[in-house]
Amino acid sequence: MIKILIDCFGGDHSPEANVDGALAALELLPDLQLVLSGDQPVLESLLKTRSYDGSRIEILHAPQVIGCDERPTDVIRLKRDSSMVKAIRMLRDDDSVAAMVSTGSTGALVAAALTRIGRLEGIIRPAFCPLLPTMNGGIVGVCDSGANVEVTPEHLRQFAIMASLYMENVYDVPKPRVALLNVGKEAEKGDELRQTAYKLLSETKELNFVGNMESRDLLSGNYDVVVADGFSGNVLVKTTEGTALELLKKLKSDIYSKMIYKLGAALMAKMFKDEKEFFNYQNYGGSVLLGTSKVIVKGHGSSKAKSVQKCIEQAYKMQLSALGPKIEEVIGKYEHYEY
Predict the structure, then answer these.
(1) The domain containing residue 305 runs over which residues?
(2) DSSP state, residue 51
(3) DSSP code of 282?
(4) How far apart are CA 253 and CA 151, in angstroms?
(5) In terms of domains, do 191 and 262 share one?
(6) pTM for the whole thing?
(7) CA 255 to CA 105: how far, in whole Å?
(8) What angle do CA 311, 316, 322 make, to 5 degrees?
(9) Cα three-residue angle 330-336-338, rounded to 5 degrees
(10) CATH of the domain at 96
(11) Residue 203 belongs to a domain
């Protein structure tokens, strides 16, 4: 059995979406056990109205809730009975718990993970790696996407190694093509950080480094991993998601503007539905925090039940793949420095 913790009071649609997503994952994965962290009376009330295998669920009573506008350091210190902090403590102290999923405050989750869970051996800084769909039906991971605003070339090399191993071992991508986010494709492009990182990535034999990538090519299908500092990576991911959503809105508005367009759209209804699902981030789970000693998956704050289910599936696959020891083995081959 694989036991995974769910922070049930994080996110815009909690706790209903978190509970429903957890139960959907429980039905899909027969060797999954779940711990639901949150206000016990509320969770028990929700569970009474749903059908599930009670022998595979337990509740961690945590009556406090963390708001997204609260300072992460204050949360860890003052809200020790919150659903996130109590879950983090259980993840640290209980060897039977393999992973944790949360759709709550990103800052609080990162701070709690770093101070309570710790890093894999040799890892300087953990990094987020969300997945996006590509035009050829594949996926691409962006690492980092928000955990580390300021980085060094060595950080970027570690991000590349972790994300490459993640794609290879969890999603069966052979020899993942790794690119460095930059302002141009030429090797000499970018600032000193990017130029030095380019050299390091080129020299790392465990990586299938294919050079620089411009942001417009993210969904092209030509890359499996894109390496970036947390600021640039976060802007890249959110801009791409936002652009896709606005284009869909524009398309819908145009269709309803004329009767002839409506008639044409009626004939293409299945295609439009498929396109909407293709761009729906709810179908791709959350951002894995690579580099922590236990598996942590951060879902979108607006996650609904389907997205929570996908996040749990991600955590489950990561545990099965034994990714942590593989990362430590490769990272251990290279000198690294604390910053």
Answers:
(1) 1-123+291-322
(2) -
(3) G
(4) 42
(5) yes
(6) 0.90
(7) 37
(8) 130
(9) 130
(10) 3.40.718.10
(11) yes
